[in-house]
Structure prediction request, 319 residues.
Amino acid sequence: MENFPGVWNYADQQEWLKRVTREELPPLIITVAITGGHPGKELNPNHPETPEEQAQQTYDCYNAGASMVHIHARDPNNPSMPTCDPAVFRRINALIRERCPDIIINNTTGGGLGSFEERLQPVEAGPEVASIDMGPLALKFVLKKRPEAGRQEEFVFENILPATFGSTEKYAKAMLDKGIKPELEVWHTGQLWLVRNLIEKGLVKPPYLIQFVMGFQSGAYATPKELLHLLESAPMPSVFFVLGVGPLQTYMITLGILLGLHVRTGMEDNVYYRRHEFCKNNAQLVERVVRIARELGREIATPKQARQMLGLSEKPSQY
Prediction:
């Protein structure tokens, strides 16, 4: 693991004890997922949707301690709906880069439920990192009415998030060709089959960036037992992130900080600060992560440190 700063055997109890007692856990990389694909201001009026809103909230999160931003784009003519248009992603990326000179820019490829080709389009916007969903999921949630965006009634959205061995290989190959680091989104241990397939075929390079998505529908429960199982099952050398959905966000983040992992927060995953209280903005969530981490003795990673741990270029992307 010596060639990969910040990477160690997370499942080794003696190693964990040594690092904790010596305060040698790696600096904490904080990713902020500022906005999701479908739900937006109808769930929380403070949700950023336009490129300008996303750039401003990212800037506030960057100042609070976030070193990576995960981006979804919305249709400029209908902000209640996602878009995979690389021109829209590039505009968001450019506005963020103007304000945040070295933050790591991470574009989704799960921003809509179109074809594989459509969902791959955001990589054309030149991100430094891009997500790949590592397996299919069953989805069901209520989209609330939003008359100003043309949604007159709420309705139940039910579908399958598609992912196959072939599609993940295609996404990884496209990212490899463009020098983009794949962020491998893992919802349960079965999806590690697809992760190992990419590794065996040389389509992802170490250290692998693996994110455990806890508490999402048809995925792993957001519990300590499930997270430890994922951690023990995943391939090495990897840099692991964890996120929790909804009211489980803070618990999963705290557990990730304790275990020496890295974390994702943000309004894509949770629109509440606490029960019955909306987030004022994404920075409020980042600030809470920073407070918890400092109380637990974890240094907050700078973008430069995050780039080194993830094996990214020290020269930020330009648009």
The chain has a mean pLDDT of 94. Residues 26-136+162-310 form a domain with the TIM Barrel fold (CATH 3.20.20.70). The first helix runs from residue 13 to 21. DSSP finds ten helices and 14 strands in the chain.
